[in-house]
Amino acid sequence: MSTAAGWTLAVAVPLAALRVFEAALDTLGGALVIGVADAKETVALTLYLVRRPDRAEAAGLLAAAAAAAGVAAPAFEIAVLPELDWVAESQKALPPIRAGRFYVYGSHVTGPPPPASIPILIDANAAFGTGRHESTRGCLIALTGLAKRRRFRRPLDMGCGSGVLAIAMAKLWPVAVMAADNDATALRVARENAWINGVASRLRCVASDGYRRAALVRRAPFDLIVANILAEPLAAMANDLARHLAPGGVAVLSGLLADQERAVFAPHCGRGLRLEARIVLGDWATLVLGR
């Protein structure tokens, strides 16, 4: 999509607060490119936008995110881009990745997927989950491992974002997959991605704040629940997860830093779940729990 001028909002944030700042910047729309953490565990974020962002609004969002994360409000820069296809340019910074059997790529990648891989086309969009973050990759690796052991019949992606994990489950097992999120934009993006990847007929996206939606209650119990969100809500929803997980079911939890594992595992352990596996990629952990 060509525009007369594009804009960027650039900011560097602490790695531990990355997800909080991602969520804040998502409200501005556009395409977010995430850099690699440096030696000081700082990550550069660049948001590409069609229109010039309001500086006061951006400052307020970043200040609120900083307060929520318990860090200082970061400085940021807004700059104009020359005329170009800014979405395509931002996508060029997103190379395809391998995670278990999955090959996650953007529409700018024209080569064929690797042999025996499961391709998933996900472009940068206004919902979290391009497959490139360590938490999403950890879930994809966990799903690959689970698929070697058994077939699941009632999977749920709680906090689906872009729908990449729900799509992965629909490609692994030819069953109906539930995907829930409390963000309308995420649900729209997830539905679009399901259609692009040929699994729309098996993917049902529902708006739900946690497990409260009647559609989820009727579908429960689930034999597989994947939740790639944040450590605090994961711990807070442990009781609800346990109530909606079938006997012998499996939960894959991610979106937590390695030093938050105990805080997330403890409430789930107290509700009868045991640790089956853990995957650590960089500073991020993915937990596989069984009942």
Summarize the structure in words:
The protein is α/β, with parallel strands linked by helices and 291 residues long. The chain has 2 domains: 6-92, Alpha-Beta Plaits, CATH 3.30.70.120; 97-290, Vaccinia Virus protein VP39 (Rossmann fold). Helices cover 33% and strands 30% of the residues. It contains 10 helices and 14 strands. It has helices at 18-26, 55-69, 86-92, 134-147, 164-172, 184-196, 214-219, 231-236, 238-244, 261-269; strands at residues 6-14, 31-34, 42-49, 76-81, 97-99, 102-105, 118-121, 155-158, 177-181, 203-207, 222-228, 245-257, 274-281, 284-290. It has a 7-stranded mixed beta sheet, sandwiched between helices. A 4-stranded antiparallel beta sheet has the order 2-3-1-4, with helices on both faces. Strands 5-6-7 form a 3-stranded mixed beta sheet. Helix 1 packs antiparallel against helix 2 (55-69) and helix 4 packs parallel to helix 5 (164-172). It is globular, with a radius of gyration of 19 Å. The protein starts with 5 loop residues before the first strand and ends with a strand. The model has no long low-confidence stretch (mean pLDDT 89).
Based on the model shown, name its key terms:
4-stranded antiparallel beta sheet, alpha/beta, single chain, 7-stranded mixed beta sheet, 33% helix, 291 residues, Alpha-Beta Plaits
